[in-house]
Design brief:
Low-confidence stretches: none
Strand order of the largest sheet: 1-3-2-6-11-9-10
Largest sheet: 7 strands, mixed
Structural class: alpha/beta
Shape: globular
Distance between the termini: 54 Å
Mean pLDDT: 95
């Protein structure tokens, strides 16, 4: 039997006809790397770390899609093969180093292998998102893009105290309102932390959101808070309530 039949699709779209104004994207949902890449030269310990995927993000995104009746596009492969939230000309599109870890299988890649990864993993995901958004806009449906991500508690030795962050650029009113709605007693919710949206290092917000004139944000949740089923469920419910509150305001 053809071994490729056992490979996951590059993108899985859930609830495409959902009634919510929110379209959810989870670009770093999976850590799967096909056997042909031999783990990109990394051991299992590295392939379960944040460098390979956003821990807990898929569980939060799926629960959130169900709670909001929202469409969701989820990646089927590891960000180490090619990052779906990076422009193709970014140095971190196919990272040779992630955080402080060298990725041997990404060193000195030729143009043919780069193009192959674009065709196999990057373009199918982006095409599915474009199709989803095009269908909604053709019907005149209100649409706001929310990317679901997670981040590490410590990055290169520096502690990150936030529980979650809302990243935005042009969607200032929506981004600020969502951060305020997520906040509350004991909650450390940041705006534009631990990252900032930039054309050179982001794809979802500039391309799928701003280029279409749509509000678009990324929600980053600290991975130790959503690394198990209970934590993911708690944060999905919290995020669902906040997004519902903003939609009503």
């Amino acid at each position: 039997m053809d071994s490729t039949a056992r490979l996951p699709p590059p993108v899985r779209v859930i609830n495409a006809q959902g009634s919510s104004p929110y379209v959810l994207l989870c670009e770093h949902a999976s850590r799967f790397i096909p056997d042909e890449h031999k783990g990109l030269g990394l051991g299992e310990a590295d392939l379960t770390r944040h460098i390979a995927w956003d821990i807990g993000a898929a569980q939060v995104a799926e629960a959130l899609a169900q709670a909001l009746d929202a469409p969701l596009a989820m990646a089927g492969y590891s960000r180490l093969l090619i990052d779906l939230n990076r422009p193709l000309d970014s140095a971190t599109s196919i990272p040779e180093v992630s955080e402080t870890t060298v990725i041997p299988g990404n060193l000195n890649l030729g143009a043919e292998e780069r193009a192959r990864r674009v065709a196999l993993y990057f373009e199918p995901f982006q095409a599915a998102v474009r199709q989803l958004l095009d269908a909604r806009l053709e019907k005149g449906r209100a649409t706001v893009i929310v990317g679901v991500h997670s981040f590490t508690p410590v990055f290169k030795g520096v502690a990150r105290p936030w529980h979650a962050g809302v990243l935005y650029r042009r969607a200032q009113d929506f981004g600020h309102a969502l951060a305020q709605a997520l906040g509350g007693p004991g909650q450390a919710i940041a705006e534009n932390q631990p990252y900032q949206i930039e054309d050179g290092s982001d794809y979802t917000v500039p391309v799928h959101g701003e280029a279409r004139g749509l509000d678009a944000v990324l929600v980053e949740i600290r991975q130790d808070l959503i690394g198990d089923a209970a934590g993911a469920a708690t944060w999905a419910a919290r995020l669902a309530a906040a997004l519902a509150a903003v939609a009503r305001s």
